[in-house]
Amino acid sequence: MKISFVLNDRPTTVEVEPSMLLSEVIRETLSMTGTHVGCDTSQCGACVVHVNGKSVKSCTLLAPAVEGADIRTVEGLSGDTGPLHPMQQAFRDNHGLQCGFCTPGMLMAALDLVSHNPDPAESDIREWLEGNICRCTGYQNIVKSVIAGAAAMRQAS
Amino acid sequence: MSEVIGIGSSPKRKEDARFVRGRGNYVADIKRPNMLVGVFHRSEHAHAILKSVDVSAALAVPGVRAVFTGEDMKADNVGGLPVGWGIKGKDGEPMKEPPHPPMAHGKVRYVGDAIAFVVAETEEQAQAASELVVVDYEVLPAVVGLVDALKPGAPAIYDEVENNLCCDWHLGDAPAVEAAFRSAAHVASIELVNNRLIGNPLEPRAAIGEYDFATGQYTLWTTSQFPHVVRLLMGEMVLHIPQHKLRVVAPDVGGGFGVKQFHYAEEAVVTWAAGRLGGAVKWVCQRSEGFVSDAHGRDHVTEAELALDEAGKFLAMRVKTLANMGAYLSTFGPNIPTNLYAPLLSGVYVIPSIYCEVKCVFTNTVPVDAYRGAGRPEATFVVERLVDLAAREMGIDKIEIRKRNMISRESYPYQTPVLVEYDSGDPRGCLDRAEVLADVAGFEARRAEAASRGKYLGLGISTYVEACGLAPSRLAGQLGARGGLYESATVRVHPSGVVTVLIGTHNHGQGHETTFAQIVSDHLGVPFEDVSIVCGDTDRVQFGMGTYGSRSLVVGGAALAKANDKVILKGRKIAAHQLEAALDDIIFEKGEFSVAGTDRKKSFVEIAGSAYVPFDYPLETLEPGLEEQAFYDPVNFTYPGGAHFAEVEIDPETGVVTIMRYTAVDDVGTVINPMIVHGQLHGGIAQGIGQALFEHGVYDQTSGQLLSGSFMDYCMPRADNLPNFLLEQHSTTCTHTPMGVKGCGECGTIGSPAAIISAVVDALKPLGVSHVDMPATPNHIWNIIRSSSARLAAE
User: Please, which residues 45-84 of chain A have a Cβ atom closer than 8 Å to chain B?
Assistant: First the structure.
C-alpha cells in the first residue's frame, strides 16, 4: 500500500507493507539511518521521532498509522550542514553522548519535553527520559545537556 | 579553531559532529548491492541431541536462497571458534577445551545455540522461513547452576569433560596462608555470589559478510572492538581465508563494554554464507536474540576468608571461587576469572599471603566472558566485603581498618603476593580526599534525620585497584595468552603538514578521535583540527589488537607517542640538513625545528613539505616522506585505583534503595581530556550500580530457559534511578607508560558495586544484616527486612 506523510518538511509517499513499523519505513525504505533500533520491546527509546510534534517510539507505530502525519527525525533538526540545533549543540558541548547510538532518541525526547516545559528541572528531565536507555553516560551529562539546550532555546526564542 | 589543543584540555569531541546529526555509520545502517538477509534459527532447549534438522519447508519459502546448518559447515571443514587463552590447572594439565562449532551439530548446549541460518531476499522472508525449520530434539536434562554442575551425577555437557570441570586453577602460597590462618586472632568469612550480567551495549550486534567471486576477496563488516583479531581468528582458524583476502571493518560501533570483543559465531557464519552464495549477506541481531547469544559476564560463587591479628592488621586471605564458563569457551572466557581476578585480590592493602582457587565450570548457559571490569570487579567485591565484615566483627570503624592496612604511597613499587607489582599509587590520598568530599563527618546527622522520617540511611565505602592496559605480551604468554598484546600506530604526515593517524585500537564511545588527536597536536605542535584518527578497518590500518581492558590510551596511546617521537626525529634530521647544523643541536618545540641558541628555524609544515619535495634534503642518508609507525608492548600492567563512597536510603515499606550521594576519587594517572575521563567514570559507575541494584541474568534451574531475556525483565539503570556523581582525580603518574597514563574505562564498574552494597548493608545494620547479595532489588531488600525484623522480634 501507499502512504503519504511529511518527513522533515518534505512531502513523502512510499510503498509499504501494512505490517511495517514506522522505524522500518524510516530506516529501510527511506534509508534514513539516524533513527536507531536498540530493542524489540519498545523499551530503549533509540527510535524516538516526532509525529505531529510529539515524541513517539517509532518501533511502536505501524506505518499506515502515520498517513498524513508530520514526522521529524534527527536528520530534520539541522540537516547535514546547517548550524546545529541548540539541543544538538548542548549535547556536544556537555559531553552528553559517547557511542552516539541513543543520542537521536534522546534529542527527540528532550525536545518534546522542552516544547511543553521550556525550563525543566533536573527531576523533570530524569523522569521524562525514563523511556530512553543510555548505556554509556550514566545520564549525568545528558541531564546537563538538556538543561543547557533548554536554556539556549529559551534565549533564542 | 586552528590551534594546538594538547594534553589536559577538554575540546569538544570530533566524533560528535556526526553523531548529533544522526550521521553515524553503524553496521545495521550499511546496505550493499543486492544484499541478502540472514536469520538464525536457535535452540529452544538448553541441552538436547539434534536428531534431525529438516530445512525443506524453509527452503520452499519464496525468496529464500539457502538454509545452512551446522552439518553443512562441518562438511565444508569449517573450524571451531578459537579460545585466545589456554590456562593450566593445579596439576599442570591444560584446561578442557571442547570444540565450539559456529553452528551446532550433534548436540545443542544452551538456549540460543545456533542451529540453522536462513538466507533470503528480505528479512520477512528469512524470518518466516526460519520458523519452518523443523528440529527433532531429544531433550536432555540441563544444568545451569555452578554448584549443581559440579555435583556427581550432574548432566554431562561434554562426554569428554568429567564433572563439567573445565579447569581447576590456583594462584598463591597455600602453606603460607594456612600457617597465617592458624596464628590469626580473628577470621572473617563470607559466602557470596557475583551476579550474572548481560552487558547490553545499546547497539545490538550485527554483521555483513560479502564475497567477490571475481577477486576472491572477502569483507566482513562487524560490530567489533577488535577487527584485526577477528580477521586473524576467523580467517586462520575458522574459515581458512588467507589474511590478505579478508578485510574486516568495524565502523561506528554503539558501545561495547567487552561484549563486542570476542570472535562470534555469527561473524563466521555470514562470511562463510557470503562465500557460498556470492555477494553480501547481512544479519542484525534482535535484542531478544542478543540476550541469548551475546556473551554474558561475571557469575561467580565464592567462599572467602580474611585472617587478622589483634590490631586488625591483615595477615592472609583465602578464596575459593566457582566461575561459570557457560556452554562453550568464549574468546577470553577462561582468562577472566583466573588471570584477571586472583592477581587483584590484594586490593590496595598489605596482605602478606593470599591463596586463591578457581574452578571454571561448564553449564548449559550462554558463554561467559569479559564484561567491563572483567574479573577485577569480582575481586574487588570479595576483598571489600571481607574488609567490611572484619571491621564490623572486630568493632573497628570500616574506614579506619582500611587506613590501617593500606599500602602507603612510599611503598611503591609494591610487589603483591599474587603475581603483580603495582608501579605507583596513593590509596590513602584517594581515601582521605573522598572522605572529605563525601562529608563523612556529617553522615551520622544525616542518618538521624533519615531515621526521623522512618528511613534507613547507610554509608558505604569501597577502595579498589585494577590491572589494566592489557598487556605485557611476554607475561601474558606465560599466563596462557595465545597472541601478543601490544598496540600499533602510524602517524602519516601529509605534504601540507596535516596528519592522519592509523591506530589499531577501536573507538566505540570512548572519544579516541578526540583524545588521540590531542596527543598528536600536543607532541607535534599541529592544530587539533588538522589531525584525523582512523581505526577499525584492516585494509586501512596496520595490525592492532583493538580495544578492551582499558588499553586504548595506555597501550595504543603509547604506540602513538612513540610514532610521534619518530616523526620528530626524522624532522630534526631534515632540519639539521637544511639549517646546516648538527642533529644534536636541533630542538623541536611548539611546532618548530630550530638550532639551539639561534633564531634559525623551520616550521613543522615546511619540514613536512620538504619531506615530500626533497630538493634541499639529505637524500643520501634519509628516505623522503614523513610517515612513521610504532608498535608498543607494555612492560607492566597499569594500576588505576581509588576510593568510592556511596550513601543510600532504604524505604522499609517498599525495599527501594535510593542513592543519595555518590563520591569517587580516582587515580587514573595523567589525564589527557578531563571531560572524557569524567564521562568514562560516570558510565562505569552507572554500570556498577546496575550490577549492585538492578541487573541479573537469571536462568530457570531446571529448564535452562533465560528468564531475564528482554529490557522488560533485565533491569538497567535509567535516568531516574541515578544521582549525579561527585568526582575528583587524585592522580599519581604511571612510571612506565610514556605519558604516565593508567586508563580509566573500567574504574567505575570496579569500584562501585562494593561501595553500594557496603552502603546497603550499613543501612540495614540495625536489623543485624551483615551481607546482601546483588542485585539489591526492592523485592530482595523487602524480604531481608521482613525476615530480619521477624528474627529480631523473636529474639
Answer: 46, 73-75, 77-80, 84
